[in-house]
Automatic annotation (TrEMBL), chain A:
It comes from the Eukaryota. GO terms for molecular function: DNA-directed RNA polymerase activity. DNA-dependent RNA polymerase catalyzes the transcription of DNA into RNA using the four ribonucleoside triphosphates as substrates. Specific peripheric component of RNA polymerase III which synthesizes small RNAs, such as 5S rRNA and tRNAs. One of its GO terms (cellular component) is RNA polymerase III complex. One of its GO terms (biological process) is tRNA transcription by RNA polymerase III. The lineage of its organism: Eukaryota, Fungi, Dikarya, Ascomycota, Saccharomycotina. Belongs to the eukaryotic RPC34/RPC39 RNA polymerase subunit family. It is found in: Nucleus. This is DNA-directed RNA polymerase III subunit RPC6. Keywords: DNA-directed RNA polymerase, Nucleus, Transcription.
TrEMBL record, chain B:
The keyword Repeat does not apply. Residues 189-479 form the RNA polymerase III Rpc82 C -terminal domain. This is DNA-directed RNA polymerase III subunit RPC3. DNA-dependent RNA polymerase catalyzes the transcription of DNA into RNA using the four ribonucleoside triphosphates as substrates. Specific core component of RNA polymerase III which synthesizes small RNAs, such as 5S rRNA and tRNAs. Belongs to the RNA polymerase beta chain family. InterPro entries: POLR3C_WHD, RNA_pol_III_RPC82-rel_HTH, RNA_pol_III_Rpc82_C, RPC3, WH-like_DNA-bd_sf. Residues 420-436 have a biased composition (Acidic residues). Pfam families: HTH_9, RNA_pol_Rpc82, RPC3_helical, WHD_POLR3C. It comes from Zygosaccharomyces rouxii. The lineage of its organism: Eukaryota, Fungi, Dikarya, Ascomycota, Saccharomycotina. GO terms for biological process: termination of RNA polymerase III transcription; transcription initiation at RNA polymerase III promoter; tRNA transcription by RNA polymerase III.
């Protein structure tokens, strides 16, 4: 801290004044040269130049190229302090990592951009990491790449893969529990007594008449999930849509129209092991839809039908 | 698990040849090896060949199996050609005798062709799977047809006789049947079976190969166009084709013509069947019953058991007029032509809607609904309200304001209420009277029919308000797809089904895409895809990324080709049915000594006295296993027919 103050004190008054003024406008505001002249109140470029140079030397100003125009950006004193403590290579590497923002940057890209030797880059990264200036994150898109970003940044969705990923691994358990929640919610809508509609009690089957809107929309499901606070990540309608699509692939839901879904009876039957009014059926005809998850051939069964027997 | 042991073995034909010589009784371990080796051989041949030869061997004997074998492997053959392939134990006479009995059982069709310039006629024999399919389905044919008439036991007896003899006339049956049975009853069962279309008069069409019939008609129509005609050849062909089509369908439809079969008895003036007309089972009609069953099963699992019972009635009353399960035109080779294939498909679509007798309304259904089915309180017309939160209608009833002249000031419109009102209005379009005392009221039936018509699977279609028809061309492909999916789910697991459906929906996908849409781990996806490819469920497409098509840089995409996949499943199921039959034969062979002993006349009925306890146990085990096999066969058949027809 003392060092920092010392550094700050070493600034000329004019430089300090300009820096404060720039920071006042906001941390990430970019200044063109005329704007800088206006802000500082110094009309002559010859007078302005040494001040800017001084700030640049102290890392208190950053040069940014935007649309082929050179612009200046004020840097926080602490940030500047960080940079001045680094070696030249380190600060070079750091600046590229900083520029990559939330997307992060691949070590190979750093090497190519900085033109430094691999060893040097690795050494810099190691030292930056140990000082907690940068961190390495795992990318879902490129699981083998080592990607760096500033320590205080939250990786973007592209890198983390969205809500389905925890520590860049597909969180199957989380997805499955959400699928169950979505299914249960929709089944409650689809059948008059929800998924307990077909629990096989002597009660008669009750169905909704064809004109009843017994489907659930994406928004309904999202609202329900948000209201019930079962998840701690933010979900978008698109996320719910992909959940519903998975349920459609599992034949647990059917799509009525865009973003409107209904639970299939088949899935309810699986859930409750409900066989329908079999007793009333005079023919106990075999149907794959009744038996598909009940069949388990035993080892000693000599007549067991194995579907892969024919395939060599 | 509900057992479905309904298949019974048909009585083997009297004219069938000697039974298979028993394999020498080798010890058990060696026996297993033989099974393995033989099944290896069977795998390399076509599954249908395996099925039909196995079936012919077990029901009709070795010689019949041989003829089925050569005809299936080599296509059509003349007697001379069959004889040249025959083993030394079979001479021309026995070949001919076997052919005759096979023709009688509709296992073989024939056509006479003149060869060369001499005009010498040669009869060529074709394999006809219909006869063997009838044997395969014999149990359910007997049961189903029995169920459709008033006297099931007599009907099953008649059907059983027809099955074992191939065809039967009424007079023959009356002569041979028990004199105590009333003639009138027998005749009435015959009439019912014929009226339902379950029995038809046997004609030359039954023995003529469809393709040969078509070719003959086409060539005749083509040659009928004068050579001097100025038409282009393409036009000539098209004209011949359309003429032949008309005649072809006419000939095939004439088979189902009842006027030749049914007459009025001059003595009693009751309807009767022409006495000397040989009758046979109409297999296409039976397939319609199976098709209806499959659809009812599907409706039961997709919509509910009560609508499915309504659907069952709908299918049954339209069955006689519904389109054939196998369109004969598809057997002619015309499908090779895309335009023809399209027009055949359109024709089918039109038929199922326009044919008289294929449409029905709720009134028709209500007539046939069983007494036990009570439709009251099965449909709910409004959403459950407790989930909606506080009901706005629950507020205190507003006091009606009346002016002096009696005019009631209407309450201020409440937007929410209005919405409710609108929903109620919708209800009014289609009132379902819950208070109606009639459990089969038209409005209730209509509600169920609408339910069937409004789901994502088009079980029914409404052409005019209140008038429905069954869109077979739309619903059957869905039945196929769903059955396929569930077979995949039951054999390869639910994750396989998820990936399979994901690929089908998105047509051409990469592994990453599956990863992000099916939300599964890459490792799991890769193993599942491996097994899916083994079963031909999906195909791989390689997309090279570099000019040298390096495999390491290529991207692999997956897609599903349904025709291919279903065909594979069809064959797989056929092979499994065949394998079960094969196992049954092995079982009988292994226990042949015991079985011959148990079947001896002096032992029958006194098994407990004359057989050793161990033999009794063995016999019980053999019987149980056979029953088990038949159950499995009938289950496999119910899957197979979906892909086969």
């Amino acid at each position: 801290m003392g060092n920092l103050l010392e550094n700050a004190l070493q600034l000329s008054d004019q430089a300090k004044d300009l820096h404060t003024k720039m920071l006042d406008k906001g941390p990430s505001v970019l200044f063109t040269q005329p704007e800088l002249q206006e802000t500082s109140g110094i009309a002559s470029l010859n007078d302005l130049m040494p001040i800017v140079q001084e700030l640049l030397d102290k890392n208190l100003i950053k040069l940014v190229k935007q649309n082929n125009e050179l612009k200046f950006q004020a840097v926080d004193i602490f940030e500047a302090q960080k940079k001045s403590a680094m070696s030249a290579e380190e600060s070079l590497v750091y600046s590229y990592i900083e520029a990559s923002g939330r997307e992060g940057i691949w070590t190979k890209t750093i090497k190519a951009k900085t033109n430094l030797h691999q060893h040097v880059v690795l050494k810099c990264l190691k030292s930056l990491e140990s000082q907690r200036y940068v961190k390495s994150v795992k990318s879902v898109k490129y699981p083998t790449r080592k990607i760096y970003m500033l320590y205080n940044l939250q990786p973007s969705i592209d890198v983390t893969g969205g809500p389905w990923f925890t520590d860049s691994e597909l969180d199957v358990e989380f997805i499955n529990s959400l699928l169950t929640i979505v299914w249960r919610f929709a089944s409650d809508r689809t059948f008059p007594n929800g998924f307990k509609n077909f629990s096989g009690n002597d009660k008669k089957e009750l169905l909704y008449a064809p004109n009843v809107k017994n489907y659930s929309t994406i928004q309904d499901i999202l609202d329900f999930i948000v209201a019930s606070q079962v998840v701690n990540v933010e979900l978008t309608p698109a996320n719910i849509r992909s959940l519903c699509d998975v349920l459609v692939y599992d034949d647990k839901m059917e799509k009525i129209s865009h973003d409107c879904y209904r639970v299939t009876l088949e899935s309810v039957r699986q859930m409750t092991q409900y066989g329908g009014l079999i007793s009333n059926d005079d023919d106990g005809e075999f149907s794959i839809f009744d038996y598909f998850n009940l069949i388990a051939p035993s080892q000693n069964d000599k007549e067991a039908v194995y579907f892969d027997e024919w395939i060599l | 698990m509900a057992s479905v042991a309904q298949s019974s073995t048909p009585v083997p034909n009297a004219s069938s040849t000697t039974p298979a010589p028993n394999a020498s009784n080798t010890p058990g371990a060696q026996q297993e090896d033989i099974v393995m080796v033989s099944s290896l051989e069977q795998r390399t041949l076509s599954p249908e060949w395996f099925l039909y030869t196995e079936l012919a061997k077990s029901l009709l004997g070795e010689r019949a199996a041989f003829i089925v074998d050569v005809l299936l492997s080599l296509g059509r053959l003349s007697v001379g050609e069959i004889c040249s392939k025959a083993p030394s134990s079979m001479n021309a006479r026995s070949v001919k005798a076997t052919l005759v009995s096979l023709i009688q059982l509709r296992c073989i069709r024939y056509v006479e062709e003149s060869v060369g310039s001499s005009g010498r006629a040669i009869t060529y024999y074709y394999f006809n799977e219909e006869g063997l399919l009838l044997f395969l389905y014999s149990g359910s044919v007997i049961e189903e047809l029995g169920r459709r008439v008033s006297n099931p036991s007599m009907a099953s007896q008649i059907v059983q006789n027809i099955l074992s003899l191939g065809s039967l006339t009424l007079n023959d049956y009356l002569q041979s049947c028990d004199p105590q049975i009333s003639k009138r009853d027998v005749i009435s069962v015959f009439v019912q079976l014929c009226e339902g279309g379950f029995l038809t008069a046997i004609t030359k069409v039954h023995y003529t190969p469809v393709k040969a019939l078509w070719d003959g008609l086409y060539i005749k129509a083509y040659n009928a166009i004068p050579r001097t005609s100025t038409m282009s050849d393409l036009k000539k062909r098209n004209e011949a084709k359309s003429k032949a089509k008309v005649e072809f369908l006419q000939i095939l439809n004439s088979v189902n013509d009842l006027s030749k079969v049914l007459t009025t008895d001059p003595q009693t003036s009751l309807r009767t069947v022409v006495g000397n007309l040989p009758l046979t089972i109409n297999f296409a009609r039976f397939l319609k019953i199976r098709r209806s069953k499959q659809l009812v099963q599907l409706a039961r699992t997709r919509i509910g058991s009560i609508p499915s019972q309504v659907y069952n009635i709908a299918l049954q009353i339209t069955e006689p007029k519904s389109p054939e399960p196998v369109d004969p035109l598809t057997l002619t080779g015309l499908l090779q032509d895309l335009d023809e294939a399209k027009s055949i498909h359109e024709e089918q679509e039109l038929l199922e809607e326009k044919n008289a007798g294929t449409t029905f309304s709720a009134i028709d259904i209500a007539k046939y609904l069983p007494e036990s089915l009570d439709l009251r309180n099965t449909l709910k017309t409004s959403l459950r309200t407790n989930k909606r939160g506080p009901n706005p209608n629950d507020q205190l009833p507003t006091k009606k304001l009346k002016t002096e002249d009696g005019f009631v000031i209407p309450p201020l419109p409440n937007p929410q209420q209005e919405q409710e009102q609108q929903e109620d209005d919708n209800d009014d379009d289609d009132p379902i009277d819950e208070d109606d005392g009639n459990p089969h009221s038209v409005s209730l039936v209509n509600g169920h029919l609408k339910l069937l018509a409004s789901t994502s699977i088009p079980f029914l279609k409404e052409i005019r308000p209140g008038v429905f028809y069954v869109p077979y061309t739309k619903v059957l492909p869905i039945l196929k797809t769903l059955t396929y999916d569930y077979i995949i789910a039951s054999t390869l697991g639910p994750s396989a089904m998820r990936i399979c459906r994901c690929i089908r929906e998105n047509s051409l996908v990469s592994e990453k895409f599956i990863n992000s849409t099916a939300l599964m781990k890459e490792k799991d996806i890769r193993t599942t895809i491996g097994s899916l490819i083994k079963y031909n469920v999906i195909e791989i497409q390689e997309v090279p990324r570099t000019a040298d098509r390096a495999a390491s840089r290529a991207v692999f995409l997956f897609r599903s080709k349904e025709r291919h996949a279903y065909n594979f499943m069809n064959q797989n199921l056929a092979w499994n049915v065949a394998n079960l039959l094969h196992k049954k034969e092995r079982l009988k062979e292994d226990n042949s000594t015991l079985l011959t002993k148990a079947n001896r006349d002096d032992v029958k009925g006194k098994e407990t006295e004359l057989l050793l306890p161990s033999e009794l146990n063995q016999l019980k085990m053999v019987n149980e296993r056979e029953l088990n096999i038949w159950t499995r066969v009938s289950r496999m058949l119910s899957l197979w027919e979906i892909f086969k027809f």
